[in-house]
Amino acid sequence: MKNLFKLFAMFIVFSSVAFAQEDEGEETEIKEITIIHAGTLLAVAGNDPVQEKSIIIEDGKIKSVKDGYIDNDGTEDAEFTIIDMSDKFVMAGMMDMHVHLASGSGNSADYAIKGVINSYKTLMAGFTTVRDLGASDDTIFKLRKAINDGDVIGPRIYAAGNIIGVGGRTNGKECNGIESCRKTTRDMIRGGADWIKIYSSCSGSQLCSNEDGSPMFFDDEITAITEVAKKYNIKVAAHSHPRDSALQVLKYGVKSIEHGSFINEDAMDTMIADDVYYVPTVSVMDMLEEVVEKGEVSEEMLIHDQSFLDNNPPKIFEAYKRGVKIATGTDAGVVPHGKNYREVERFVELGIPNSDALKMTTVNAADLLDKSDEIGTIEVGKKADIIAIDGNPLETIEDIRNVVFVMKEGTVYKD
Ligand SMILES: [Zn+2]
Predict the structure, then answer these.
(1) How far, in Å, CA of 266 to CA of 151, rounded?
(2) Is 19 exposed, middle or buried (0-12, 13-18, 19+ CB in 10 A)?
(3) pLDDT of res. 15
(4) Which domain covers residue 58, as residue numbers?
(5) How far away, in angstroms, is 154 Cα from ligand 1 center?
(6) How far is the CA of 337 from the centre of ligand 1 (A)?
(7) pLDDT band for position 362 (50/70/90)?
(8) What pLDDT digit, counting tens, does each position of 102-115 carry?
């Protein structure tokens, strides 16, 4: 008993020493502050760039932006890390609003491996945030968590999970009649979906995906999906190629039209009035051009693909001139991952000015996600998602291929 008391007394002594050390540690807590010296800074895409600025970063967020190159911002008890980007073009991390990181052929194990590889490629290309619009199972939600936890290197993910369709599509979640549409939508949201993705027309690789193609859902089915999503404050993205499927879904409050290959002026005007985004996935034209050039598909398919090539690019430029809000989305998964810059390049090829194309992959994407208060620009209080580029994409858009530095939420992933 006496020995036991002795042990207890020793424990008390040891633990009070530990506390004292901890207390001492707290008194001299060192703040870690990173300062990026930005030669050219495009703080807000769409505005003019500025020269020779210091971006001060603490706790993953932008603390301040100061004139000239400073080595400390006057904070006491702080350790400063200086990152010299004085000969670089610095801007906010880019965003891709239409990717499929963890899907395709195979099973869950394949999706997981592909997901890890594709996430890495995407972040290294300077894309710090993505919206994943369609996966084959729940792997994408687990990938999202692994990235958030810091176990996997990749962009911040907003994920839809499985696409909701009318059935028959592999791994698609079914919506057939009001009850099943409600149930499936609730299931997806409970399972972790940040967005709901619906298949309101057939796939672009099918002949039924033409200008006069029929919408897939009945009105009450679309209503069921959008009403459930609204209850949970979740937004709906609608895959749509034919003219009428866009017109249909726009009646029920979707937030974005994906592809929108044959949207007409009525659809565009509704999108402007209702603040609906257009994510035209024009990068897919890279693939279609290759298909048509090789000519290894049926005559019918060649005509089909050619109609997309002839129609879509001018349609996107028309929507831009009309004032439809556009965000970049490549459909990576259909086209290669890590080449997400192609969408921005394609926009410029259409005639959209470089500064607006860069806005579509930063400011507009944040707005589409309803995260403008957190990401999309280099401003005080925003998450420190910052990239540096060799060259000047405001002059030569292809320079966005030369991403030499990537920071996501204050952590450097590429330097
Ligand atoms: Zn897609």
Answers:
(1) 46
(2) exposed
(3) 39
(4) 31-91+398-414
(5) 19
(6) 12
(7) very high
(8) 988 899 999 999 99
pTM of the model: 0.92
- Ligand 1 centroid to Cα of residue 402, in Å, is 26
Three-state secondary structure string covering 191-207: CCCCEEEEECCCCCCCC
Residue 302 lies in a domain: yes
Distance from the CA of 334 to the center of ligand 1, in angstroms? 7
Residues 235 and 207 in one domain: yes
Q: Ligand 1 centre from 198 Cα, in Å?
A: 11
Of 268, 250, 263, the residue nearest 322 (C-alpha): 268
134 C-alpha to ligand 1 centroid (Å): 7
Same domain as 146, residue 85: no
Q: How far is the CA of 106 from the centre of ligand 1 (A)?
A: 18
Ion ligand 1, residues whose Cβ is below 5 A away: 331
CA of 188 relative to ligand 1 center, distance in Å? 17
Round the CA-based radius of gyration of the chain to a whole number and report it. 25
Q: How far apart are CA 7 and CA 358, in angstroms?
A: 67
Q: How many domains does the chain have?
A: 2
